[in-house]
Write a structure and sequence with these properties.
This protein is α+β, with helices and mostly antiparallel strands. It has 7 helices and 12 strands. It is globular. One of its GO terms (molecular function) is protein serine/threonine phosphatase activity.
Length: about 260
């Protein structure tokens, strides 16, 4: 069982803070995050499954994806098409391994995990994910969600069947149609590409944050607290107070 975690660090022009807690409603923390000390990649995964299967799935995801990125991507020289291909292959590899373990081990049956990531190559950011863990950008004090939830409610919003406000309380808001551990989990991630500018702040989180802290709250906290660790602590606390019923994990990254 993973204990609550809190880290901070700096590399070059990047400074980060990360917090992960079990929360009020779960017995164990099935979230995982991984921050590369050289600020080449940042990962958040939210596991699901009975017993300790969710923990295994999220731990496998961050380990396997980071290991494969190290092999497939030259963080100093790779062109963008190679980076995107490397990201997709890394996630597909993790997906296949999680599926295989789920079939081999009865205790891991039907386990799965989300993942959201930032990969940094030659000063360019690649942000994406699978599932409903999210990536955000705060630029010029305005918050933008950079990832799309692979949830039934988001599909209904895109189809125009329900509104984004309806989706926040919809009974299917946490039901995913795509995550690692399924056949659909290894398909292309189609990451957002952007060149960060001084003052940008990025945030990766599990749905424990977004379920308890709406976008306007996230925007307010990121604007109010400059230190990335304090911002991450405040976001986790806001989500907990806002009624989040899941594990809560948040990584805040400053471009300085």
């Amino acid at each position: 069982m993973q204990a609550d975690q809190k880290i901070h660090g700096r590399a070059g022009k990047y400074r980060w803070g990360a917090v992960s807690i079990t929360g009020n409603f779960r017995e164990n923390n099935e979230d995982r995050f991984l921050v590369d000390p050289a600020a080449r990649f940042f990962l958040v995964a939210d596991g699901m499954g009975g017993q300790s299967a969710g923990e295994k799935a999220s731990a496998l995801a961050v380990e396997l994806i980071s290991d494969r990125l190290e092999v497939l991507v030259d963080f100093q020289r790779s062109p963008s098409n190679i980076v995107i291909d490397g990201i997709d292959k890394s996630i597909n590899h993790a997906n296949a391994e999680i599926m295989a373990l789920g079939e081999l081990e009865p205790s891991c049956k039907n386990m799965g995990t989300t993942v959201t990531f930032i990969v940094v190559v030659k000063g360019e950011f690649f942000i994406g994910g699978v599932g409903d863990s999210r990536g955000y950008l705060l630029r010029n004090k305005k918050l933008q969600q950079l990832t799309e939830d692979h949830s039934l409610t988001q599909a209904l919003v895109k189809a125009g069947t329900i509104t984004a406000e309806d989706a926040r309380s919809h009974r299917y808001r946490n039901v995913l149609y795509r995550y690692l551990g399924t056949k659909e989990g290894g398909s292309a991630t189609d990451p957002t590409r952007l060149v960060p500018t001084q003052g940008d702040r990025f945030m990766l989180c599990s749905d424990g944050v977004s379920d308890g802290a709406p976008a306007d709250m996230i925007e307010k906290v990121l604007n109010q607290y400059d230190d990335p660790l304090i911002a991450a602590e405040k976001l986790v606390a806001a989500a907990q107070q806002g009624g989040s019923k899941d594990n809560i994990t948040c990584v805040v990254l400053n471009v300085e």
